C-alpha cells in the first residue's frame, strides 16, 4: 500500500552514505520526493532528510537503514501526521492568537492539548476556540512550587512539543530537563543581543536601528538554546520602547509560527547548540 | 480642559505655512506633541500632521487654521477615538483572524461593525468573537446583483473604512465610487508586479526570488490605487505556487495590519495616486 | 592525484537517479563534499549539483555518468577555475566599480577581458585597474550598426559570460542570440514590476514603498529572462525619483555581484524561463 | 544672493520652539525646503533640522536663532559643501573600495585627505586613485607607540570625520578622545550582539540565522558608541564562518556608505549614546 515517510538520519560523516542510503530506497522501489543532505565539516557530522513514498514497512526500512549507517546514527522514519502540542502563555495574545487562528484554519499541522497560563487574561480568547485553558497563578508561590503545579497539569497531556507563546517566566533547570528538546520559545530580541529581561527596553536604550525576534529550543542556559528562526524589523529614534514592543509583536508571532512549521514538519535537526534546517 | 487632537492639513505649498500654522498653536498655548511636514516639490503640495494637546475648542481651532492656510487647504482637527470599520472576506482566515485577535486585545483602535463574506467558511471563526457575520453567496447572481445585496447590508452600518481582508471578488466602479477613499485592500503581490488574478501563480511562473504583499486604497482601476504599505518574503525554486501562497500569507496579514494602523491613526494622506505617510 | 570537480546534471526525472549517480561516485572512491538535488514535479525535471573530490579522470567520470542517466541528461564535470568575462557599461560606475574592487581583491573568481562602453565616462576608472577599456559611441549609428561594432570588439575575446553592468542600451535579438545563455543583466527594478525604461521614475510615479533590483539572464524578450537574484530597498514619499535612483544603486551592485558569484561557481541551472540555484 | 543652509538645532524642549524658529525664517523671507523635528519626551530634548534657502547672512541668522532658543541650544547654520575625511584601514578592500568608487563618481560629498593603514596590502588600490596612502606597521610597537605614529600623520590633515573602513585595531581612550565625535566605525555584527573580536566566528558558533553590520560613532567603550545605521543578511547552517564573513562584506560596505552619507549631509544628531537621524 502506497504511503509516505520522512526519513531523518544524522551520524558522523562517512564515505558513501548518500549512495548507501539511496540504495536502501532504490532496492525497495521507493520514490524520493525530496532529499537534502548536509555535512558539517568542522564536526564531521552528516545530516540527511529524505521524503520517500511507495510500499514499505516502517520497521523494516528503519532496520535496513541501520545496517548501512554508522553505529552512532540516529535514524527516524516518520509517517507524517499531526503532532501534539501544549502551549504556555502569560498575558499577551498575539503569538497565541496566531497559533489559534492557524489551528482553526487547519494549517497548524498540530493538535493543541491545552493552554496553560500564569494569569487569567487569555481565558476568554482560548475558550472561544474550545481549547482547555488552565490558569495557575504564581501569587504567593516560589518558582519551584509554581512549576510543580504547572507540571502536574502538563503531565495530563501527551505532547511532542511545548510552545512558550510569550510565557514570561524563567524556567528552572528541573523543568527544562523534564521536557528536554521539546520546548520551543520565542525571545523578543535578535539573540544573542539583549538576553534577559525586557529586551525592547534594552534595545531602546542602546539606540538600535533594527529590532528582532528569535525562536529557539530551550536549554538550561536562558536564551542560549539552538536557534530555529529569526527575523528583524527596522526601527528609529521616534519609537518609544513601548512602541518598539508593539512593533516587535508582528515579528514575534511570524517567527514563532515559522519555527513551529519547521519543527512540526520534522525539518529541524539539533546538534551541539545549533540547528540544521532543511 | 486638557485634550488632544491630530491636526491634518494639506494644501498647495506657500511660504510661511509652518510659521503660520505653528503660530495658531502657539497663540492658543497648545503643546506640540509631534509634528511632521512634507512638501511635494513636483506638485507644489504641502502636507502637515501635528498632534497638539491643551485646552482648545475644535471648531475655533479649525477656523483659525482656515484663516492662515491657502483657500484650497483641507484641514482636519481630529479628536482621537476608535474608528468604525466593516470587513469583507471570502474563505481565507489569516488576515481576518489577525484583525480579530488585535481587536480582542484592544489593540485595533477600531470597532468592527460586521464581517460580510461571499461564503459561509468563516462564520464559525467570526461568531466565536461575537461579531455579526453575514454571508451573501454570489451563486446564480450577476456581479451587479451580488453587489447590490452586499451594499444593502453594508448600509446598515456607519463606518469610516471598509477593509477587504482577502475579499476575492472584483468590485465594480459603482461599488468603489459609493465608498470612495474608504476601501482598503490587501493585494497578494508586490504591486505593480502581478496585477490581477492569482499573483502567486504568476510569480511562480515568472520564477521570481522574492514575493510581496501590498495594502492599498481601492480606486476604479483594479490594483492601481494609492499604496499604503508593502512588504516582501524571499522564495526560491523549491516552492510550488501553493507553497508561495502559503508563505505569502504572513506577509499579507502583517502588511494589512500595518496599513490599517497607519490609516486608523490618521497618518495617511492621499494625493493623486500616492500616499504621504507620517 | 587528488582533485575536485563540480558535477552538474539535469535531465527528466526518473526513479533511482540519486542512487545511480552516487554509485558512480562511490565506485570511484570519490568524496562528496556537498550535494544538492531538486525535482521540479510540474515539469518532471531533475537537477543535481555535487562537488566531489578524489582521484578521477574527467572524461571517464563524464562517460560513466552518461551511462546511468537518461538520454536527455545534460552532464557537466567542471574543474573549478576562474571563468572569463567581458563587461558592457555606459556611464554609471557603481556596478562596474564593485566588480573591479572585487577583482582587485582576488574575490571575483573571474578574469575580466575588457570593458566596452558606449561612452567615454568610465575610461579613467577602468584604466586605473589596467583593464582594457573600449568605447564605441552610438552617435550617428543605427542600433544594428552600433551592435556590429560592439560585436567586432567582443569577438576578440573568449569569455564565458558577458556582464551588463548598467549597460543602458536595448539589445537586438541578433545580439542576444549570438551570446545565448551567456549574458547577465542587472535591471534596476523588482521585475516584473517596471519593465522597460526608467524604472525608478515609474516606481516614483506609482508611489511604491519598496524598490528593487533584479539580476537575470538576457533572452529575446527585454527584461523577461530567467531571474538569478533580486533584492529590495524600502523607500517613502520623501524621495524624488532621482533619490530613489541613487538609493537603488546599492541594491543593484549587491544583487549583480551576488548573481555573478552564483553563476561563476556553477550554482545556477536554467530551465524554461527559470533558474534553479544551489 | 540666493543661497541654502542646513540649520540644526538641539536643546531642551520648550513650548513654541517650532513657532519661534519658523518665525525667524519667515521674518527673513526664507524658503523652507525641508523641515523635520523630534522631541525626545523621556529626556525632554528637542531636535530640528531645516533646510532653508533665500538671501541671508549666516552669522545674523545664527544670532537670531540664538535669541529665540533656550540657552543650552546648540545651533548650527551649515552651508553645504564637501566635508573632509581621512580613512583608516587594514587589509580588506571592500569598504574602502566602495568609498573610493563613490568618490571617483563624485557621489561621496567628501574629500579624502589620505588613507592610513597598518599594512601595505591596500597601497596599490589606493594609489590607483591618486590618494595618499600611508602605511604604519605596528610590528614591534606597543599600542600606544603605534597610535602616536598614526596621530602624527593624521594631524597633517584637517578633517571633519575619520572613517574606520575595517581598521582592525583597538583604539585607546587617548586616541578616541583626541577625535571625539569624529570617528565613524563599521562593526561587522548586528550590535550589541557579538561585541569584540571576530564577530562572524561568534555568530557561526552561536548558530544565528541572520548576521548584521553596524556603523557607529566611536566612544571610549569599544563597540558601544551611538549607532548610525544597521543592516542584516540571512544566513544558514551551510555557511562556514569564513563564508559568513564573505557574505557579510556586502552588508558592511553598504551600511558604512549609508552612515557616511547621513553624517556628511548633517542628518545625524548625537545625544547621550543615541542618534536622531532626519
Automatic annotation (TrEMBL), chains A, B, C, D:
A single GO molecular function, which one?
A: formyltetrahydrofolate deformylase activity
Respond yes or no to whether keyword Hydrolase is given for this record. yes
Q: State a single Pfam family of this protein.
A: Formyl_trans_N
ACT domain boundaries: 6-80
Question: SUPFAM superfamilies attached here?
Answer: ACT-like (SSF55021), Formyltransferase (SSF53328)
Q: Check the record and name the InterPro entries matching this protein.
A: ACT-like_dom_sf, ACT_dom, Formyl_transf_N, Formyl_transf_N_sf, PurU, PurU_ACT
Q: Give the protein's biological function.
A: Catalyzes the hydrolysis of 10-formyltetrahydrofolate (formyl-FH4) to formate and tetrahydrofolate (FH4).
Q: Which PANTHER family match?
A: FORMYLTETRAHYDROFOLATE DEFORMYLASE, FORMYLTETRAHYDROFOLATE DEFORMYLASE 2, MITOCHONDRIAL
Q: What is this protein called?
A: Formyltetrahydrofolate deformylase
Supply the gene name: purU
